[in-house]
Write a structure and sequence with these properties.
The chain has 281 residues and is α/β, with parallel strands linked by helices. Helices cover 48% and strands 14% of the residues. The protein starts with 8 loop residues before the first strand and ends in a 17-residue tail after the last helix. The chain has helices at residues 33-49, 70-74, 85-108, 124-130, 158-165, 168-177, 183-188, 199-214, 218-233, 236-250, 253-264; strands at residues 9-14, 17-22, 54-59, 113-117, 120-122, 134-138, 142-144, 181-182, 194-196. The protein is built from eleven helices and nine strands. The strands form two sheets. Strands 1-2-3-4-6-9 form a six-stranded mixed sheet, sandwiched between helices. It has a three-stranded mixed sheet with strand order 5-7-8. The chain folds into two domains: 9-214, 2-enoyl-CoA Hydratase, Chain A, domain 1 (Alpha-Beta Complex); 218-264, Orthogonal Bundle (Lyase 2-enoyl-coa Hydratase, Chain  A, domain 2), CATH 1.10.12. β1 (9-14) and β2 (17-22) form a beta hairpin.
Length: 281
C-alpha cells in the first residue's frame, strides 16, 4: 500500500512499521475536523491491508497535541436555540459517537499502536493515548484531562479506558482536578512505560521497540493484542476459554518452526504477513 497524503499528519511505512507523525506544530497539533476523518481512515487501511506490523504515533513540535480544536466544538450544536435542545442533543450524541470511533480504530487495529509523547497530551490527547497499546514519553511530557477545566465532562474515550490503564484513584484525581501529570509521575502510576531524556531519544527508543515487535510473528502479535483486550473486558474463565479457542484455530506450526530454525541458523526469522481483510464477497 502506497501511503496516502494527509493534511494533519505524515505517514511513512518502512521495515514493518507505520509511522504516523502529527504535522501541525504551529497549532500544537490540535485535532481539527480533518484529523477526525483522516486518522481512522489511515489506521483502518493499515490494519485491513496488513500494510505494517506496528503503528507508531508521534508529533512534530513542542507538544504532542493540545487536544480538540475549537472548530470541532462549533460543529457540535453547542449553540442551538433552547427550543431545539432535544433535537440538537440527538445530533450532538451522533457527533460524539463519530469522534469516539476515531480512537476506537486504534484499539481495534490488528497491529499494536505505540504512542511517543513529548510536551503536552491535553484533553482529547489523553483519550487518544489511552486507546493505544503502549505509551512512552519524553521528560518534558505531561498529561491533562483538560475538559473538566473548561466546564465539560470528557466524552471521547478517557473514562472507559483511563481507569483500566492506571489506578482508579489516580484516574479520578486527574479527571476531577484537571491537573497536569508530569512524565515522571505518569511512569510511576503506569500511564507510560518509559520516560526518555529528550524528544530524539524518545523517538529512537520507541522505534526500536516497534522494530522488535515487527520482527515477531504477525499472527502471534495480533493474537496477543486480541487476547489482552478481551481479558481486560471479560472474566478470567471466559478469557481462558477464548485463548484455547484462538490457539486451536490459529496456532501456526510454520511460525514456531521458523523461530527455532532461525535461531539455529543465527539469523532473523522470516514470517508471513497477515492477509488483507476482504472488503466484499
Amino acid at each position: 500500500m502506497a501511503p496516502a497524503t494527509y493534511e494533519c499528519f505524515t505517514l511513512e511505512i518502512a521495515d514493518g512499521v507505520a509511522h504516523v507523525r502529527f504535522s501541525r506544530p504551529d497549532k500544537f497539533n490540535s485535532f481539527t475536523p480533518e484529523f477526525w476523518r483522516e486518522l481512522p481512515q489511515a489506521v483502518t487501511e493499515i490494519s485491513e491491508n496488513a500494510a505494517a506490523r506496528v503503528i507508531v504515533l508521534s508529533a512534530e513540535g513542542k507538544h504532542f497535541t493540545a487536544g480538540m480544536d475549537i472548530s470541532v466544538f462549533m460543529q457540535g450544536a453547542l449553540d442551538a436555540p433552547a427550543e431545539n435542545r432535544e433535537i440538537a442533543a440527538e445530533s450532538f450524541h451522533r457527533h460524539v459517537k463519530i469522534l469516539q470511533d476515531t480512537f476506537s480504530a486504534l484499539e481495534n487495529a490488528r497491529q499494536p499502536v505505540l504512542a511517543a509523547v513529548q510536551g503536552g497530551a491535553v484533553g482529547a490527547g489523553v483519550d487518544l493515548v489511552t486507546a493505544c497499546d503502549c505509551r512512552y514519553a519524553s521528560a518534558d511530557a505531561f498529561f491533562c484531562v483538560q475538559e473538566t477545566a473548561i466546564g465539560m465532562t470528557a466524552d471521547v474515550g478517557t473514562f472507559p479506558r483511563l481507569a483500566k490503564v492506571i489506578p482508579e484513584g489516580w484516574a479520578r484525581q486527574m479527571a476531577y482536578t484537571a491537573e497536569r501529570v508530569p512524565a515522571a509521575k505518569a511512569r510511576e502510576i503506569g500511564l507510560v512505560n518509559e520516560v526518555y531524556d529528550t524528544h530524539e531519544a524518545l523517538l529512537d527508543g520507541v522505534m526500536e521497540i516497534a522494530r522488535t515487535i515487527a520482527g515477531h510473528s504477525p499472527l502471534a502479535v495480533t493474537g496477543c493484542k486480541r487476547l489482552l483486550n478481551y481479558a481486560r473486558d471479560h472474566a478470567t474463565a471466559d478469557t481462558l476459554d477464548y485463548i484455547g479457542l484462538w490457539n486451536a484455530a490459529m496456532l501456526r506450526a510454520d511460525d514456531i518452526k521458523e523461530s527455532y530454525i532461525a535461531k539455529t541458523e543465527k539469523r532473523a526469522p522470516r514470517y508471513d504477513d497477515l492477509k488483507p481483510v476482504k472488503k466484499s464477497l
